[in-house]
Design a protein that fits this description.
This protein has 18 helices and two strands. The chain is mostly helical. The chain folds into three domains: 257 residues, Na+/H+ antiporter like domain (Na+/H+ antiporter like fold); 28 residues, no CATH class; 46 residues. The protein has a two-stranded antiparallel sheet. Helix 5 crosses helix 7. It is globular, with a radius of gyration of 26 Å.
Length: 465
């Protein structure tokens, strides 16, 4: 197996989805085999000391060793670092992806967007109503946003396993729905899970966002400018403002430039001139890996030309994708999917009102909401069913969309986060119950969706049983 084959496997939706599942499973096992170490590692404060320095000092006439450090960094918890820092990168990529789809993708016109957006709304409203039917009082009622989400990585991983049995248009519809679903989930986080506001910090952060949009309009092309302003002005101030810092990632993604620096024909002309120069030096000797000065100069100019020509938005999305899929998301799963059952049995944990609301919302609310709104829009002539897609396949896809995982777990952390000491134990219990329901419902939804689509499709897509 060559390098390209390995790279293709690792970058596939099935592999990244499987890695995410294994990370979640590892977190669950770790949390219940050794809950003390899991809690200590992810939830307790840590201090990172850099540059140890030893010196002799006198204390009460006695010479003792004193340890000092060049730098000490105190961390409230590694879980907060993951959720408030690493996940900002994930949400930045979500913002970039949504912008790309709105500009030139599956949501770029009313005709393309209306059906997946409508289906996504149905798949958000019905699960929220199911949850609210179980939990409509007190702290538990804050969790209504948990079962509204669809995990893009997991859902695409499952449907990619059915590549020869379902039409490509069904996968495209699911992806468009998931993007619209993400947009809805982001709106819920921004408007409903912000407990307090520091107006000054929020205004500074919004000024940073405005600066990014102005730079975009002024055709500032360098990605470094957007990264620096995004971190220094936007992320840091949103973190202080009370609005969750991940919204900073979304807004920075929206503000990222989406225009190419030059047309393909201009790029070809300029690149060809440089390649012609390089051809004149093709007989130059490369000594121990070091090319001649002229050749190195042409290489540098080619690289600069390509950088200028590329689309910054798509370049950022492509460069970050492997790190997000293979590093950030598995770490997020390890940090957040560790549900500690304690003295409660598995059946007791999944039988609580919070768990029932989340689990049934994802498992049944998602497919029912998606199917009903899609059916209504098609019958009213608002939208058109994708080519080659059957109604049974919409229902099967609805089950797959019930895999909430990443966004649902993320919303769980926000919904039940509290500074009230009298509610902390209750909030912790609700978090564990909701997360357990998310894990179980996501797994069952994946199996149901996969089996249902297998049964209602022939060996080749488009052939019904």
């Amino acid at each position: 197996m060559n390098y390209n084959s390995v790279k293709s496997i690792i970058s596939s939706a099935a592999f990244t989805g499987g890695l995410l599942f294994l990370s979640a499973l590892a977190a669950f096992i770790w949390a219940n085999v050794s809950p003390e170490t899991y809690t200590w590692f992810w939830s307790e404060p840590h201090t990172l000391n850099i540059g140890t320095h030893m010196e002799k000092v006198l204390e009460n006439g006695v010479e003792v060793d004193k340890v000092s450090y060049f730098m000490s960094i105190s961390i409230r918890s590694l879980q907060l670092v993951v959720n408030d820092l690493l996940m900002v990168i994930f949400f930045f990529s979500v913002g970039v992806e949504i912008k790309r789809e709105l500009i030139a993708g599956k949501l770029s016109s009313f005709k393309k967007a209306i059906l997946p957006i409508g289906a996504a709304l149905g798949g958000m409203i019905v699960p929220a109503l199911i949850y609210y039917a179980f939990d409509h009082e007190g702290l538990a009622s804050r969790g209504w946003g948990i079962p509204m989400a669809t995990d893009i990585a997991f859902s695409l991983a499952v449907i990619s396993l059915l590549s020869r049995r379902v039409p490509l248009s069904l996968k495209i519809f699911l992806m468009a729905l998931a993007v619209a679903d993400d947009l809805g989930a982001i709106s819920v986080i921004a408007f409903f899970y912000t407990d307090h506001l520091n107006i000054q910090a929020l205004l500074i952060g919004l000024a940073g966002v405005l600066l990014l949009f102005i730079a975009n309009r002024a055709k500032v092309h360098g990605k470094g400018f957007y990264y620096i302003v995004g971190v220094v002005l936007v992320w840091s101030q949103f973190l202080e403002s009370g609005v969750h810092a991940t919204i900073a990632g979304i807004l920075t993604g929206f503000a990222f430039p989406s225009n190419v620096g030059m047309s393909p024909s201009d790029y070809v002309d300029k690149a060809q001139k440089l390649l012609d120069k390089l051809k004149k030096h093709e007989d130059d000797k490369i000594i121990k890996g070091v090319p001649s000065e002229e050749v190195a100069h042409v290489y540098t100019k080619l690289k600069a030309l390509t950088y200028k020509a590329e689309n910054p938005m798509m370049a950022a999305e492509h460069s970050m994708a492997p790190y997000i899929a293979l590093v950030i998301m598995p770490i997020f799963a390890l940090a957040n999917a560790g549900v500690i059952l304690g003295d409660m049995s598995f059946m007791q944990a999944v039988g609580t009102p919070v768990a029932m609301g989340v689990g049934l919302g994802l498992l049944f609310g998602k497919p029912i909401g998606i199917f009903l709104v899609t059916f209504l829009f098609v019958k009213l002539g608002i939208g058109k069913l994708p080519d080659g897609v059957k109604w049974k396949q919409i229902l099967g896809m609805g089950f797959i969309a019930g895999m909430g995982f990443t966004m649902s777990i993320f919303v769980t952390e926000l919904a039940f986060r509290t500074n009230d000491l009298s509610l902390m134990q209750m909030a912790s219990d609700y978090m564990n119950e909701a997360k357990l329901a998310i894990l179980l419902a996501s797994f069952v939804a994946a199996v149901c969706g996969y089996v249902f689509l297998m049964m209602c499709s022939g060996k080749k897509h488009g052939e019904e049983c």
